[in-house]
Here is the input.
Amino acid sequence: MNQITQLPETLWSIRDAVIEATHKGEEAPRELSLIHDWLENDGWTELVDQNPNGELAVSIQSFCFDDAELRALTEVDESILITDEMRIHYTRERLQELNSGSFSYDYSEITFCRLENNVGRSVVLGAMFEAQQGGWEVYWVGLFTTAEQFFQAMKLNGLWTVGELDSIDDDSILQFWSK
Here is the structure.
């Protein structure tokens, strides 16, 4: 799960500057867009087909609503107060249905490219793919010093890998509900 992305030599100096800036906590150079462009075009195989780092992801926000929607979907009487327990229960039921395959869901895929310089220093370039009418759309989500940081950032933004759905904690669910 840590395959190194093979960039063309013409992008190595940009790669090295990106790695250096990321490890210093600085903003990435604007030229990072050239790496993005290469990966989305000539490097598509490197990004998608040969990338073992991809994971299907579920947006927790897709299963969290506001209390009025919950009330309507579950036919809860107006006189009954919607509680956190009800919100959590509803969300977990939807996630279990998803896991069982009882309804379809357009999964996003989250993935990363590991960029490594000639001395072994590396960063992770995070991406998310979403199916669009004309194919896949790539959204670049940031640079991270490790894959673990990337996946943690995705969780904080409500994207959990399919394999982790059973381990979502109550607070992660509740943060996306509107009361």
In short: Strands lie at 55-59, 108-116, 122-132, 135-144, 159-161.
